[in-house]
Design a protein that fits this description.
single chain; mainly alpha; Hypothetical protein af1432; 7 helices; about 60% helix; globular
Length: about 170
């Protein structure tokens, strides 16, 4: 398992009970050959789309579990929120329109092709771009995915410059 960007999770040889539960909830997605293709797409400059989805799913799982919400559907929806298999940076797109508005629809269609998607998962996938798009999530789990997505993106984009600056201050090359 890959480590979660911005946390100490999944770095140890032995996983905690919470980490094991997260993996059990999401294993079929994490090991699916089509989902694994996300490792081939760059996302937020320095991450793969796979890593980004994993980060968002973990933050969502932890937050929803603590809040007593539907953490299973929320984690699964978060994992699938960017499950689209094209590179928008190369002007690839299966539909007309802005990438911000289109990719959640494509992610939902892709998710439904390979997995059973319940209403909470659908909400998490379709509305995760709010407030960049006008339609907001209808569930508390969907709001948490939206927030986790923004948090993960900021950590992912900021992690490399931070490591470079830290190395520079220590006097070693980045």
């Amino acid at each position: 398992m890959t480590e979660i960007t911005g946390t100490r999770h999944f770095r140890k040889q032995e996983l905690s009970v919470r980490e094991e539960e997260f993996i059990e909830i999401t294993r079929d997605i994490l090991e699916h050959p089509e989902f694994l293709k996300l490792k081939n797409y760059r996302h937020h400059l320095y991450q793969t789309r796979y890593q980004h989805c994993l980060n968002v799913a973990w933050y969502t799982y932890v937050t929803c579990k603590r809040a007593g919400l539907n953490y299973v559907s929320a984690a699964r929806g978060a994992l699938l929120h960017d499950f689209y298999l094209y590179d928008h940076n190369n002007d690839e797109a299966p539909m007309e329109g802005s990438h911000f508005a289109v990719h959640p629809q494509v992610a939902l269609m892709t998710a439904e092709k390979y997995f059973v998607v319940d209403p909470v998962m659908k909400d998490c996938i379709l509305y995760h771009m709010w407030p960049s798009t006008p339609k907001r999530p209808r569930t508390r789990e969907g709001f948490i995915v939206t927030l986790a997505d923004k948090y993960a993106a900021s950590v992912e984009v900021g992690s490399v410059p931070y490591r470079r600056l830290k190395a520079l201050l220590k006097g070693s090359p980045a």
